[in-house]
Design brief:
By secondary structure, the protein is of the alpha+beta class. It has a single domain, classed as Gamma-glutamyl cyclotransferase-like (Hypothetical upf0131 protein ytfp, Roll), CATH 3.10.490.10. It contains 3 helices and 6 strands. The longest helix is centred in the middle third of the chain and has 12 residues.
Length: about 140
Amino acid sequence: MDCLFVYGTLRSGYGHPLGVVLETEAKFLGVGYVHGYLYDLGEYPGIRLDPTTENRVIGEVYQLDYPDQMFPEFDYYEGVSEIYSPEFPYRRVKGTVFIENEPYPYVWMYEYHGDTADLPQIMHGDYLVFLKDRKSK
């Protein structure tokens, strides 16, 4: 069973076409969180996983019915590469997601692997709340 944790532009409510694909072609398992840090990269967010922190990044977990067909699309959208470059800032990794405080290990997610030193951190860990707050200012 392949599951995907999404925390930014692919979440329901954002309206991205690939997010709609998730909503219609995958099974929604619930809202969950990972331990790590959420950063504002301008047009989209990035996470840096850290299982030793209490910081949480909020997102949604989907069970993919056709992962072999879906992952190439998501990988392309996310700009996946094993070696960081500005054109390919993410890598697809497995981590533990918590849904209602129950751990779900081995869930796929996209982790930003560029430099975060000068990036603003989204302290509350919820990108959709961050966007709503930014619009209201």
